[in-house]
Amino acid sequence: MQVSHPVYDVAVIGGGINGVGIAVDAAGRGLSVFLCEKDDLASHTSSASSKLIHGGLRYLEYKEFRLVHEALLEREILLAKAPHIIRPLRFVMPHQPHLRPAWLIRTGLFIYDHLGKRKKLAASRHIHFDPASSPLKDEMTQGFEYSDCAVDDARLVVLNAMQAHELGAKIATQTRCSAAYRENGVWNIHLEHAQGSYQVQAKALVNATGPWVLQFIEHNLQQQSPHGLRLVQGSHIIVPRIYEGDKAFILQNDDHRIVFAIPYLEQYTLIGTTDHEYQGNLDQVKITSQEVDYLLNVYNDHFKHQLTVEDILYTYSGVRSLCDDESDNPSAITRDYTLAISPTQENDAPLLSVFGGKLTTYRKLAESAMAHLAPTFPDMNKSWTETACLPGAENLVSVELLMQQLMQGIDQVSLSLASRWAHAYGSRVWNFLKDISTTSELGEDFGHGLFAREVDYLVDQEWARTSEDILWRRTKLGFQFSADEIQQLDQYLLKLLLKRSSDTAA
Fold first, then answer.
1. What DSSP assignment string belongs to 200-211?
2. What is the torsional sign of CA 486, 491, 492, 498?
3. Which of 129, 175, 318, 355 sits between 20 and 30 A of 469, alpha carbons compared?
């Protein structure tokens, strides 16, 4: 087994949002960083979210004021860091007097408006519904409206990984950490991938494996975990677009949970999420029939247009790893994060394990992680990520202007294609469109606006390896591709990757 040299400062296990967030923060502070992910970036929990950057209005009921405050501050910071993949979104909450009184909702929204700095997002307000135009049932005559943000969750992960790589980090996807142990003041980390196995060393090890955090400590490291873990499954369904307009709905239910109905990719509506304890195989998380019924029932209780199972186009599920606070109710388990650092002896190489966390607060979690590692790296640079743009946000005046430039500069680019490119890549879109004047110059056409030039870019710059990586996590074109079109893309990727492999070997 080969050992790579020199020794890394930090090795991060896990390519979800928390792993890449810590990797980019560390790399930007001048530390050498290695990150491995056993599958694709964002291939599990981080791409199975409700696609929101939000403060978490419902967490106020559980008195999670610190978490909500931090999330609300991060909402504005992330909107500025990545305006191409994050956008403001207005939420409508129909008032259900028997569930929560109006005064309670007004109070909660007042706190929500003022608990964090709100520069770009509009304040909440009380609204009345017009029965003739409202998609809600006629008995729902009034409600409330407030602001949060929508995000392309998988791309948020990829952009952080790109930034980490550009700052010198080594990103190894499809690479599993099978074991790690301390020796002579460093971690020896055993890694496996399709081409074989190898070993790296690091002065600090970060366990950001999400729902695998406990399993990694106990089985891969042969240690005892400092915290218990609660695994909570959240599932979503996607249906054809069910109402006009660009606002989301937040639906209250009799069990005091809430369900979102969110406009998604212009043609669809995303409905979720659920909360129930999970104890199955973490690599085979699927929606249950009970979850499907639950989401359909909450939706049908609110909207005139009724849905059935036959309307569901796609489902996805993820497992959130939450630090065990001994709550009886899965919905009440804290979404706050806990960081555990365990140097068992003085001068031991530290192990930092991440329990819990939210997509919205990944950047603050990373800052906290670096604070925990500061004694090991006293000369590292100070925090820097708050004002640093993510890839694609550099020199981006607006997504709308970029769309105009794409349509004017490249012949045969439709509005929908320009919109997808601009929102996915921001200013980085020119990295694969340079010297292009017409779509006929983009190489093989796989359909639905996906061309070889973009596929090559995703393989070379964004670690895409399979059609699933490209269609579901990088471009969101999976809904539109037929089985034959996917096969055509797979054949192209196989040839491309074989060529890249032979070029590297040469």
1. EEEEEEEE--GG
2. positive
3. 355
Per-residue pLDDT, averaged over 27-36, amounts to 98
Q: According to the CATH classification, is domain 86-150+230-324 in 3.30.9.10?
A: yes
d(CA 441, CA 392): 23
Q: Does domain 399-499 have CATH number 1.10.8.870?
A: yes
- Kindly state the average pLDDT of the residues 255-277: 95
C-alpha 420/C-alpha 448 separation (Å) is 11
Q: Which of these, 121, 127, 17, lies nearest to 79 by C-alpha position? A: 121
Q: How far apart are CA 81 and CA 91, in angstroms?
A: 22
Give burial (CB, 10 Å; 0-12/13-18/19+) of 141: middle
pLDDT at residue 322, as a whole number:
86
**What does the pLDDT look like over 434-454, one tens digit per residue?**
999 999 999 999 999 999 999
Q: How far is it, in rounded angstroms, from Cα 461 to Cα 456?
A: 8
The backbone region for 40, taken as left when phi is positive above 0, alpha when psi lies in -120 to 50, beta otherwise, is beta
- 338-355 pLDDT, tens digit per residue, is 999 987 566 789 999 999
362, 16 Cβ separation under 8 angstroms: no
The stretch 236-244 carries a mean pLDDT of 97
